[in-house]
Amino acid sequence: DLYLVENTDTNSFNPHLYKSVNNGSTFTEITGVAGRVFQRDQYGNLFYSITGGFAFSTDDGANFTNVSTPDTVFSVARSAEGTLYMLSDSVKLYFSTNNGTNWTDLSKKYSGNAWHEQHLWALNDKIYFQTGSSLHFTTENDTIWHVITLPFTSIITSLHVSPDLASFCTSAYGFFTSNNLSNGATWTNIRTVPGPAQVSIYNNYIAAT
Questions:
Q1: What are the strands, taking DSSP E only, across 58-138?
Q2: pTM of this structure
Q3: 93-144 pLDDT, tens per residue?
């Protein structure tokens, strides 16, 4: 299936989500979208915002489960074991082990500039999130978000974390890959992409398997 996000204003605050089951010949709007979450994670799970929470699918969009959340959702992740994580404004982190029936506050001390564009990833025992030009990680037992230093300074327009720890990052300066997410990791510039960084949270989203 194909999914299409349409921004109806320049600030990306009023998005519409569409789905096509015929290779893009026609699209049908998924109604009830009321937030900023449109994601496909490294395990193939799909997420989109609804009023009061989000919907997620573990079967390529054939079926969606609606989840209520204690705050407005800015990003969602699901671990390989099925734990759900969600970020709200001001980098408030929550987790649920029962598909969102109950949420536990895992908020950590965060000293960075929390842009509204936030992408959350769960991999092994770590939780990663990217906002603006910053990349951070934490664990459930950590008290803070740890900064991962990147080899360039720019707005990160897309990030993908895959199950084998490969990551992909694109900025105004190019398309980069790394085989791990840590300080001191080696990043390879695959292709230089000149031009200004894209500031819309829906632009240049990478999907990789």
A1: 65-68, 75-78, 84-88, 92-96, 104-105, 118-123, 126-131, 134-138
A2: 0.77
A3: 999 999 899 999 988 887 666 655 677 888 888 898 877 667 888 988 899 9
